[in-house]
Design brief:
The protein is α/β, with parallel strands linked by helices. It has 3 domains: about 110 residues, Tetratricopeptide repeat domain (Serine Threonine Protein Phosphatase 5, Tetratricopeptide repeat, Alpha Horseshoe), CATH 1.25.40.10; about 90 residues; about 150 residues, Rossmann fold (3-Layer(aba) Sandwich), CATH 3.40.50. It is about 45% helix and about 15% strand. An 8-stranded mixed sheet has the order 7-6-8-9-10-13-14-15, sandwiched between helices. A 5-stranded parallel sheet has the order 2-1-3-4-5, with helices on one face. Helix 2 packs parallel to helix 4, helix 12 runs parallel beside helix 13 and helix 18 packs across helix 19. The N and C termini lie far apart (about 80 Å).
């Protein structure tokens, strides 16, 4: 018996306090207020990590979120092993969300994914906040890449060599004009050492589809990637690719749905430029028509040379419902005007690419229809003025007339400025969270979208004014005294 006394003495000093045991019993009975009160009856509760975890969960259950995150922050300082006790990190994430701190919630949910309770629920919340499918997050977890999504780093600008080198330099100059944060430049000759970079949180640059594929193969971390020139996105990549071409795919989907399912159109003509973008519009439009049982009756390709009228005269307009002219350059304006003259009764429509020429071509495009994010004529004028300001400033700085690549570099910097918000280092997950909240950005070169949940509208020009198609095919003039949300910045 003489050995029992030291044993009880040690247990009384180092064993779990009676108050905490009783508090846990209340917790299991879902008596959360009694659980909290019993914990407070123990004068050293703030040093007990189990108590702090129970307080975190109990306060979230009671809807007292300020208290929940207070004790969770104490718990983080005390012991990382208890962060997932009874799903404490998951419930802290819920409280952070309720308090308007999704940037903190995502890190709490990330910890909860590796806990013993609420893992699936935490993964679903992460999926919702970051705008990613839960299958992608599960794949990242199973390939040990999920943690890298939450590792803070800096932005890297990629400069290709060869024929794309000048585009890379132009892109970087435009990017520097708008982005105020920290970034590093990586030339193509250093691409092969990309695995040695452990602090990359985002890749930006005029990366072609080939480089996109290489990047997806070489990078061990899944990160956001911005490219103004990539058209094809490798389906097997774990990276999150953003290009200005995504908006046009959504616009075509919106436009085709309206033309076929509301107006009853079936047969279409297609006029497009003989370049990479022109063939992209042709593929996307034809593919979307096929999904909705529409048909293309004719295609006319144009380049720098003028096409003879005989090209149009051979077109049979008996069944023709409309003509799609996607591009918005001067050549496209000329072709759309010719189509209007040759087929005066046939409606012409296109994409928001036309915004840049509406001021000069509004009357040539009478009854022209297009899909776009919310805008007014004032937005169009403002956009064109800002483009001129940018070109003048760029020429003043670099003694060089910029192309659309420089504008897209400026747009990327503008977007990341909104997301980074002055932080010297940021994680890929925080960038994804910011992009999900931003939804879309109407830039100088084009519109960028980061979610499919965007407010696309159908507009058309009539007698030099801009009208929006309402539900039921009604028309409403866009008045300048009440500009819509989403104007040009």
């Amino acid at each position: 018996m003489k050995f029992l006394f030291p044993f009880f003495l040690i247990f009384s000093i180092f064993g779990e306090p009676r108050e905490i045991k009783e508090a846990y019993n209340f917790y299991e009975m879902k008596e959360y207020r009694k659980c909290i009160n019993r914990i407070f009856s123990y004068n050293k509760y703030f040093k007990n990590t189990k108590a702090l975890a129970l307080l975190t969960v109990s306060y979230t259950r009671l809807g007292e979120h300020d208290s929940s995150v207070y004790y969770y922050e104490l718990l983080k300082k005390r012991d990382g092993e208890m962060l997932n006790f009874e799903g404490a990190s998951f419930y802290a994430g819920l409280s952070y969300e309720k308090l308007g701190h999704p940037d903190r919630a995502i890190f709490a949910y990330y910890r909860a994914v590796y806990g013993e309770k609420e893992q699936d629920a935490a993964l679903l919340r992460l999926s919702s906040l970051l705008g990613l499918k839960s299958e992608i997050l599960k794949r990242l977890k199973n390939t040990n890449r999920l943690g890298q999504l939450f590792r803070r780093g800096i932005i890297y600008l990629f400069v290709p060599q060869g024929r794309l080198y000048e585009l890379g330099e132009e892109f970087i100059r435009g990017f520097r004009m708008s982005f105020k944060g920290k970034f590093k430049v990586l030339n193509e000759k250093n691409f092969y050492s990309i695995n040695d970079i452990n602090n990359i949180c985002c890749a930006v640059g005029p990366l072609s589809s080939r480089y996109m594929f290489y990047l997806s193969q070489q990078l061990e971390a899944a990160i956001p990637v911005f490219s103004p020139v990539a058209v094809y996105i490798p389906p097997e990549t774990l990276n999150f690719i953003y290009t200005p071409y995504r908006i046009y795919q959504l616009e075509i989907k919106k436009l085709v749905d309206y033309l076929i399912n509301q107006l009853g159109y079936v047969y279409f003509g297609l006029i497009f430029n003989k370049n990479a973008e022109g063939y992209l519009w042709q593929r996307l439009f034809t593919k979307e028509l096929g999904k909705n049982y529409g048909k293309v009756l004719f295609e006319i390709e144009y380049g720098d040379s003028t096409l003879p009228d005989s090209v149009f005269e051979t077109v049979d307009t008996t069944l023709l419902d409309g003509i799609f002219v996607p591009g918005g350059d001067k050549r496209a304006l000329f072709m759309a005007s010719r189509a209007r003259v040759m087929f005066p009764e046939i409606p012409v429509f296109g994409l928001s690419l036309w915004k840049g020429v509406f001021e000069t071509g509004a009357f040539s495009l009478e009854n022209f229809m297009f899909s776009s994010l919310p805008l007014t004529f004032r937005d169009i004028i403002k956009l064109n003025n800002k483009r001129e300001e940018f070109k003048n400033k760029y020429y003043e700085l670099y003694n060089y007339v910029p192309t659309y690549i420089a504008m897209r570099g400026y747009d990327c910097g503008l977007i990341l400025n909104k997301v980074v918000a002055g932080k010297r280092e940021i994680s890929p997950a925080e960038i994804l969270l910011g992009l999900k909240d931003l939804k879309y950005c109407q830039g100088l070169s084009s519109d960028w979208v980061f979610t499919e949940d965007i407010p696309l509208e159908i507009y058309y020009l009539k007698r030099g004014k801009l009208y929006k198609k309402e539900a039921g095919n009604e028309e409403r003039e866009i008045r300048e005294e009440s500009p819509q949300k989403g104007g040009i910045e």
